[in-house]
Design brief:
Layout: H1 14-23, H2 30-41, E1 45-46, H3 47-54, H4 63-75, E2 79-82, E3 90-93, E4 103-107, E5 113-116, E6 142-145, H5 148-152, E7 158-160, E8 166-168
Parallel strand pairs: 4-6
Antiparallel strand pairs: 1-3, 2-3, 4-5, 7-8
Helix pairs in contact: 1-2, 2-3, 3-4
Subcellular location: Cytoplasm
Protein name: Fur family transcriptional regulator, ferric uptake regulator
Main location: cytoplasm
Amino acid sequence: MTPITSDPASTPAPLVWATRLRAAGLRVTKQRLAVLEALHTAPHTTAEDVLAQVRGQLPEITVQSVYTVLNSLTSAGLLRRLDLSGQPARYETQPGGVSDNHHHAVCTECGRIEDVACAVGHTPCLTPADDHGMTIQVADVIYQGICADCASGTSSAQTPTDSGTAVRG
């Protein structure tokens, strides 16, 4: 599996986010910009974690506003929603748009989530052997296993949070 590296230092400027929002037919708002920035900086984040991060910039933002923004950005293809078994939904930005069809590796011990590039280099998952008459729009591949830290026993300092993300203590 080839990991996809995300460099938070390469966070698009607000002007880039604004252009992407307009191209998706959405108005540019400070709430949308803050959510996009938060998720680009910390991918695979839950709505509650996004709320906590965005409140640093916008203390007046409500829980409902964050959920509304997450839903509108996901519907517009600017975010991807990850539904992992037994965990709250998580979100990440879609740097390549809807055509960005990378996968995820999840540690079943600590909850760590990593992006994994498609093994073939393009989106073959969107062309199933039998589509049963459906137009396939998204294919989610989730690899589950135990990360190197958990396997070596060095993750004893990690404890999963309520959202399933491992934190070092």
